[in-house]
Design a protein that fits this description.
Length: 106
């Protein structure tokens, strides 16, 4: 499974989200909308932070997977392709993180 990418996850989420399958968590999240998906993303972010602070490697891996999944769902519902996020990350590599943060509108 080492060849699995975020692009693969994005494709699977798009397919399952539109499936209407009552047994699909992704389809349920899509049907509940962006507000519910964003709330789940926030919950997973907190759980990821807790796992990191505890220093529990296995839990951090599992919570990180949940976080990436829910972020990808939120992006899909917002009609934001992962490529757009990756382009923004690539753009930011041209300057230091401190300079990038300072350039943001206050």
């Amino acid at each position: 499974m080492a060849d699995f990418t975020l692009a693969d996850l994005e494709r699977i989420i798009a397919e399952r989200g539109r499936s209407g399958d009552p047994d699909s968590w992704t389809a349920k999240l899509f049907s509940k909308g962006q507000e519910r998906a964003a709330k789940k993303l926030g919950e997973e972010a907190v759980e990821t932070v807790i796992a990191a602070v505890k220093g529990d490697r296995a839990e951090l891996v599992a919570e990180s997977a949940d976080l990436l999944y829910h972020l990808t769902v939120v992006l899909a519902l917002g009609k934001i392709p992962l490529d757009e996020v990756m382009s923004e990350l690539e753009r930011r590599t041209g300057q230091s993180g401190i300079a990038e943060k300072a350039s943001r509108a206050k």
